[in-house]
Design brief:
Layout (H helix, E strand, L loop, with lengths): L12 H5 L10 E4 L14 E4 L19 H6 L1
Antiparallel strand pairs: 1-2
């Protein structure tokens, strides 16, 4: 999947928990129409340079400890 600058992509439910996902470390990407499902015509079969990427993960986790964060850091 090609994400344009300032894009937002949200994975939830089974897409997050059951599918393998990750981003390989490399300096550029070849945009191939058969492999990139949202390949725009103007980028087909071209290499594009990667830039800085910011990834934020937010999870809802049930409380598993009565200790607070500071109590855990003291140990």
């Amino acid at each position: 999947m090609l994400l344009q600058p300032r894009s937002l992509f949200i994975m939830t439910d089974g897409a997050y928990t059951k599918m393998l996902h990750g981003i390989a470390e490399r300096e550029d990407d070849l945009i191939e129409p058969g492999k990139v499902f949202n390949c725009p015509d103007d980028l087909a079969n071209k290499r594009i340079q990667r830039d800085t990427r910011i990834s934020i993960t937010v999870r809802n986790v049930e409380k598993v400890s009565k200790l607070g964060v500071f109590d855990l850091l003291k140990k």
